[in-house]
Amino acid sequence: MEIQVRIAYETAEMLEQLKEHYEKTSDINFTKSEVLSRAVIDTYALWKDTDWNNINVEVKDFDLLNGSLRPKFQISLDIEEKINELKKIITNYLELEKIITVGATFKYILKLALSQIQKKEKITVDKILFETLTEFEKKNYPPEIMLIINSYFDKVMLKLEENSLI
């Protein structure tokens, strides 16, 4: 089925950001339709338990053309059914009198998919420190040097913990 929807600029940016991520991680090109379908499939199990008011994502800025705000999607019947299901879930969750639009539904799907990716990729200070220490250990420095590095590492970790930074 082909569907054309009007979407907000931020929604178009999320679509591009997910497209970029999916292409980078799978090393193949994705159409916008495939991005939407993958986002639906990746998030479907989470829909009933999601707090739709509190999904936080960092959206990259993209320089988009006006046509990006009226994209066409080729979607399967299965994906269409899931989108219609989500429209009802979100409408009920937000206690709205009218069912939300398809464009708004796409926004929630993309936002949830992006949120899940960003949660997995979240970089923390302690993660960076442990990765750095592991790199030093792989370089086979003399034991005296490693003792100094480990001592310094322990002091940094202690200071971070004392200041509630990790």
Topology diagram in text:
Blueprint: E1 2-4, H1 9-26, H2 32-43, E2 72-74, H3 77-93, H4 102-121, H5 125-138, H6 143-162
Antiparallel strand pairs: 1-2
If you had to describe this structure to a student in words, what would you say it looks like?
The model has no long low-confidence stretch (mean pLDDT 91). It contains six helices and two strands. Helices cover 61% and strands 4% of the residues. The protein starts with a strand and ends with a helix. The protein is elongated and about 65 Å long. It has 166 residues and is mainly α. It has a two-stranded antiparallel ribbon with strand order 1-2. The longest helix is centred in the C-terminal third of the chain and has 20 residues, at 102-121. Helix 1 (9-26) crosses helix 2 and helix 5 runs antiparallel to helix 6 (143-162).
Content-based structural category: mainly alpha
Overall number of strands:
2
Biggest β-sheet strands, sense, barrel:
2 strands, antiparallel
The ordered string of helix (H) and strand (E) elements is: EHHEHHHH
Total of helices: 6
Strand fraction: under 5%
> What form results from the Cα inertia axes?
elongated
Radius of gyration: 22 Å
Give the CA-CA distance, first to last residue: 49 Å
Sum this structure up briefly.
The protein has 166 residues and is mostly helical.
Which features characterize this protein?
mainly alpha; 166 residues; 2 strands; two-stranded antiparallel ribbon
